[in-house]
Design the sequence.
């Protein structure tokens, strides 16, 4: 509870830092016995939606929109996923990608939290439609970013043109940092999973920690350096593999 009106949350035209002390819970269509915290949405200027679902035991979630693909990452608890006539048990650090217009249902087996990315799918002529992807983040091979062994990246979705979105984890050893200030056409949604450090967004510098959410618009200058004695890690979304001119049609 803030008695002073102070928060680290800040919303700017090209970025936002959203901290847990400002999160508001509300229902969303398709989710039952579930509180939803919408972090990033078109109302902010984004081209995707990122939100946390807090599911009671027996709570469930289904897609209620056409042409929307979904990526779900379990933060804690146990969730069953029914898709394509099969039932899958998902625990912490399991993830699922559901292509647009794929009927599916999540059901919480215990109190559970997931982070959700929903995005309109942009079909690409000549490319196959993506299929369902299930995985466990620790089992995904990691690789150093730009040869830096202190910064490890795991690609949670296949790196091919069927996909118009990418979701990765990035793990920084204590003191590790991005080698340059990045400025690019992709936009990002990011959740800090552990640790923390300093994030540059535009011309502002922010202290960040586990539980924080960041939105970065296209061309927002961005840089991160890890602080502390333990690794820092975040889950990050970006749009990929498409001409932005398609968005103008």
Sequence:
């Amino acid at each position: 509870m803030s008695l002073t009106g102070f928060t680290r949350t800040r919303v700017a035209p090209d970025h936002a830092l959203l901290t847990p002390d400002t999160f508001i819970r509300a229902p969303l269509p398709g989710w039952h016995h579930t509180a939803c915290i919408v972090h990033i949405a078109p109302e902010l200027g984004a081209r995707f939606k990122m939100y946390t679902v807090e599911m009671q035991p027996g709570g469930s979630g289904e897609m209620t929109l056409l042409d929307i693909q979904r990526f779900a990452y379990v933060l804690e608890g146990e969730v069953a996923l029914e898709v394509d006539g099969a039932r899958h048990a998902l625990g912490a650090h399991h993830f699922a990608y559901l292509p647009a217009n794929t009927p599916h249902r999540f059901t919480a087996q215990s109190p559970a939290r997931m982070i959700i990315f929903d995005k309109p799918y942009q079909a690409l002529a000549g490319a196959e439609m993506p299929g369902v992807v299930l995985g466990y983040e620790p089992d995904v091979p990691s690789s150093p970013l730009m040869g830096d062994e202190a910064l490890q990246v795991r690609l949670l979705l296949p790196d091919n043109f069927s996909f118009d979105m990418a979701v990765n984890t990035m793990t920084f050893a204590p003191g590790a940092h991005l080698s340059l200030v990045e400025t690019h056409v992709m936009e990002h949604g990011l959740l800090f999973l552990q640790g923390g450090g300093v994030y540059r967004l535009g011309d502002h510098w922010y202290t960040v920690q586990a539980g924080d959410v960041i939105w970065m618009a296209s061309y927002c200058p961005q840089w991160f350096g890890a602080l502390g004695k333990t690794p820092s890690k975040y889950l990050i979304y970006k749009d990929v593999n498409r001409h932005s001119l398609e968005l103008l049609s």
Summary: The chain is about 0% helix and 50% strand. Residues 10 and 91 are 32 Å apart (CA to CA).
